[in-house]
Design goal:
This protein is mostly helical. Helix content is 75%, strand content 2%. The chain is globular and about 70 Å long.
């Protein structure tokens, strides 16, 4: 019953909040805050354990939810993130009323779906809620409805749909190979699998699908675009929780089905290393506050993926202790990154709601006399940079120890791991460099023209927002204590021997010191000398090369249609080769047109009934041409729907979900 309330309660409350918001917006805001804090309270009750929920009669196998270890901790982190951002968002949206009812509705729906992923006990349940998260969080990205937001939302939806399709293909393959998708049964089923190559293929598909949500290279293109245009509370959730939805799927699949598959581990290791280094470089070059934090999220996801890879590789090598350290570091860094980005994105939100600007030149010096904001941002920066006595240091040290153990036990790739270790340390140094860049710009330097105006008022947020921002920043210190982190790691992972891990011995401090020294040198010798010119921050990144516009869109919109269009034309032109091809293609075309028309009809019906859209008034038709004019007026009213690309994508996704539902029914019977 408790799990049902945590997962499905927000879905119900979303409709209640929408109804309240149509009449009283202030009451709706308070209602949403109360719902999220109630969700936090319910998640705390999960710590006692022993809760589970099975819903049969749907998707053949049903939905399975349970609380244990990682499930419980990330349910709690999710609730904490939502409570903090909703408390902060009330002031953030104080001067904005457009589209807020829609925003809050989907915030609550996404909360329930995210809890469904985190508490799932099998991959199919995780997949169902994962897809809901993908579509509902789309509305956060497009919320501002600017040209930049719409383009970023298209990118986000493209990646989500493609990733979801590949993920489903991987799950179908895994079900075929192992006969189960239950987390508790996957390890035993994988051990007796007849075709490990096919299992690995399924794992790669699942890696791609979940990696699309996590922001993993090469399907990371949505992340640097979506975060800057989304509202700051939404950006905090996108970075802190929704990327972890993808990481959670990769982690559970690797942990249960592919632990010990060295080839899969190497694939994850390479992709994680590229993601880690590329994200750090993009963040260093960025001159936009939220884009820097977004690219930073991509880099930290890379750190986490490296940890997952080392767990798989060390398990294959037979080093249980090293695998335990890598796994613990992975989980702890997931938690740390979520809480750090909650703090940093809310700090960015404070800047936005006061200045309405994000570029470093515009916000330079604004925070000089804002002591609480300065302290909160500093704690977040110290945490993510891996400075000793703050939370990020311990988890990064564990990840580093996993790589060191890999160099000893994985002798066949010892040289490669040596290179990756230095990339790891260098990426950590870049993290310190770009956070130092942000902190000095906002809180130390002076604006050349507006500094007197900035210094007039030290008050930049109300008490509720200050509680959310400063309260979240305290976790940087609390989780920086070895006793707390070790016990958390033992609770989440079950590796109780990790209690003996000592992060402050000289050899571990040496790794952290090297990273910080690299970061200081990069800031002094590169940022100050190259990325600042004539007193202005300059973006020297490859602005004219965009992976999406240069590679992905031409591939999807030109190359693939040309290739597969010509392949599809072969049966129609060769009647002797495939006599029944025309009938088959005609039937498929008819089904496709029927689905398309039915969805359009449903859209028009909803907009004219539930959404209460006012009818478009046209000119009075002439008596002689009444029917013709009526046709034109109807077309003019419907065209904004039919020709809207965003809405067409949503309808395509609904069609895909319908098709996937039918496929799942027949595959899982």
């Amino acid at each position: 019953m408790l799990i049902a309330a945590i997962v499905f309660g927000p879905f119900l409350m979303a409709f209640v909040s929408y109804g309240i918001g149509r009449r009283q917006e202030n009451a709706r805001d308070i209602f949403v805050i109360l719902v999220t804090f109630l969700e936090l309270l319910l998640s705390l009750l999960l710590i006692r354990g022993g809760h589970s929920l099975q819903i049969t009669g749907i998707l053949n196998g049903g939905l399975w939810l349970q609380d244990q270890g990682l499930h419980t901790v990330y349910s709690l982190v999710t609730s904490l993130m939502w409570a903090g951002t909703t408390l902060f968002a009330r002031e953030y949206f104080a001067h904005e009323r457009e589209g807020l009812n829609r925003y809050w509705f989907f915030v609550l729906v996404t909360l329930g779906a995210t809890q469904g992923v985190m508490l799932s006990s099998d991959l199919m349940t995780a997949f169902v809620f994962f897809e809901i998260v993908s579509f509902t969080s789309f509305t956060w990205v497009i919320h501002e409805e600017t040209a930049e937001a719409i383009k970023a939302a298209y990118t986000y939806l493209f990646i989500a749909v493609i990733g979801g399709l590949v993920l489903f293909m991987g799950l179908a393959l895994l079900q075929h190979c192992l006969g189960t998708l239950d987390f508790e049964e996957l390890a035993a089923a994988a051990a007796r699998a007849e075709d490990p190559v096919l299992v690995r293929t399924a794992g790669v598909c699942i890696l791609f699908g979940f990696g699309a949500k996590a922001g993993m290279f090469p399907v990371h293109v949505w992340l640097p675009k979506a975060h800057p245009v989304a509202p700051s509370p939404g950006s905090a959730l996108l970075s802190g929780v929704l990327t972890k939805v993808g990481v959670y799927g990769i982690l559970m699949t690797s942990l249960q089905a592919l632990a010990g598959d060295a080839v899969f581990g190497r694939i994850v290791l390479i992709l994680g290393t590229v993601t880690m280094a590329l994200g750090a470089l993009m963040a260093l070059f960025s001159v936009n506050l939220k884009r820097t934090l977004a690219c930073s999220s991509m880099s930290q996801i890379g750190f986490i993926l490296v940890g997952i890879a080392m767990y798989v590789l060390l398990t294959a090598a037979g080093d249980a202790e090293g695998a335990g350290v890598a796994y613990s570091g992975t989980v702890l860094h997931m938690v740390n990154h979520s809480l750090i980005k909650l703090t940093l994105f809310m700090c960015a939100g404070v800047v936005v709601m006061n200045l309405g600007a994000l570029t470093l030149d515009d916000i330079r010096g604004w925070g000089r006399n804002k002591p609480f904001l300065k302290a909160a941002f500093a704690l977040g920066a110290l945490g993510i940079s891996g400075v000793p006595f703050f939370n990020g240091y311990i988890s990064k040290t564990m990840l580093h120890e996993g790589i060191v153990a890999g160099r000893e036990y994985c002798s066949d790739i010892s040289g490669m791991l040596g290179v990756i270790e230095w990339i790891f340390l260098f990426s950590g140094g870049l993290t310190f460099a770009y956070m130092l860049k942000l902190f000095i710009c906002i809180f130390i330097e002076k604006h050349p023209e507006k500094q007197a105006e900035f210094d007039k008022d030290s008050r930049c947020m109300n008490a509720a927002s200050a509680a959310a921002v400063c309260g979240s920043s305290l976790f940087m210190v609390l989780l920086g204590q070895p006793a707390v982190m070790n016990r958390l790691a033992a609770y989440v992972t079950g590796f109780h021997e990790i209690l003996e891990f000592r992060p402050f011995i000289p050899v571990n401090l040496k790794g952290g010191a090297i990273s910080l020294l690299i970061g200081a040198c990069v800031y002094l010798l590169f940022v100050r000398k190259v990325l600042i010119r004539d007193g202005h921050y300059v973006n020297r990144w490859f602005r004219h090369f965009d992976l999406e516009d240069s590679v992905y869109r031409p591939l999807l919109l030109k190359v693939f249609p040309f290739v597969f269009g010509n392949l599809a034309a072969i049966p129609g032109e060769n009647r002797i080769l495939i006599p029944d091809s025309q009938v088959v293609f005609l039937l498929l075309a008819t089904i496709g047109r029927t689905l398309c028309v039915s969805l359009d009809a449903l859209v028009v019906l909803l907009r004219k009934t539930l959404l209460r859209e006012t009818r478009v008034r046209g000119h009075q038709p002439l008596k002689a041409g009444r029917l013709l004019t009526l046709r034109f007026e109807t077309a003019r009213a419907i065209d904004p729907i039919v020709m809207n690309f965003s809405f067409a994508l949503l309808m395509t996704c609904l069609g895909i979900l319908m098709v996937l539902g039918v496929i799942m029914f027949f595959i899982l019977v």
